[in-house]
Amino acid sequence: QVQLQQWGAGLLKPSETLSLACVVYGGSFSGYYWTWIRQTPGKGLEWIGEITPTGSANYNPSLKSRVTILGDVSKNQFSLNLSSVTAADTGVYHCARGDQWLVPPMRYYFLDVWDKGTTVTVSS
Amino acid sequence: DIQMTQSPSSLSASVGDRLTITCRASQSISTYVNWYQQKSGKAPKLLIYAASSLQSGVPSRFSGSGAETDFTLTISSLQPEDFATYFCQQSYGTPFTFGPGTKVDI
Fold first, then answer.
1. Helix, strand, coil: what percent of chain B each, to 5?
2. Which residue of B has its CA nearest to A41?
3. Is B12 exposed, middle or buried (0-12, 13-18, 19+ CB in 10 A)?
4. Partner-chain residue, chosen from A45, A46, A110, that has the shortest CB–CB distance to B46
């Protein structure tokens, strides 16, 4: 059974960079969309972005200028960097696996494995 | 971005009740909707994908329906373990967006 475990700093000061990593246990890294989502008081659940099976990244335009998501197949892990954080970035950050169900021409995408999340607080 | 709204935002129910939660998209999204359940402090759990397909391992009392802009999640007979918050999500296009959630309590 696939499980995700993440780690990273939970307390940041404004303007610092948030860095989280998520490792995949019990399953293949290849062929999936490795995704970061956050839950904030202001916006609820928000899709941050993903690393695709081809290794390219897609980001939420609202965060794109500050976000970098990378994947490391050799380590079965992927990471999130969010620069210049403010109090608005405070929330619970989840890593998740995206998969798809192909019914040509439809491509149904869903998040089928999540971790329980890490609380990140931005405060001076 | 596609906006997802849900109603109600919260509700109180009893074991054995039939429950329906509604999700509406700001534009037509065919059947590109997923439903998740989240309990406090836990990871969200996928229940339904593609509007009506039941995720493996999810009890059959959960069902989903709808298309275009209006979708529903139904729990046919509420069980004690079903008290949680439920979210819809559109996968029609990026950025993927979520509804604000419906909290179901006793």
1. 5, 50, 50
2. B100
3. exposed
4. A110
SS3 B80: helix
Q: Are A32 and A24 in contact (CB under 8 A)?
A: no
Phi/psi class of residue A61: alpha, beta or left (left: φ > 0; alpha: ψ in -120 to 50)? alpha
Which letter does DSSP use for residue A112 in this model?
E
Q: Cβ(A45)–Cβ(A37) under 8 Å?
A: yes
Tens-digit pLDDT profile for residues A46-93: 999 999 999 999 999 999 999 999 999 999 999 999 999 999 999 999
- Report whether pLDDT(A105) > 90: no
Query: Could you read off the pLDDT of B60-84 as tens digits, one per residue?
Result: 999 999 999 999 999 999 999 999 9
Q: Is B72 helix (H, G, I), strand (E, B) or coil?
A: strand
Report the alpha-carbon distance of residue A55 to residue A64 in Å, rounded: 17
Chain B residues lying within 8 Å of A115, measured CB to CB: 43
Q: Which residues of B touch A110 (CB under 8 A)?
A: 34, 46, 49-50, 55, 89, 91
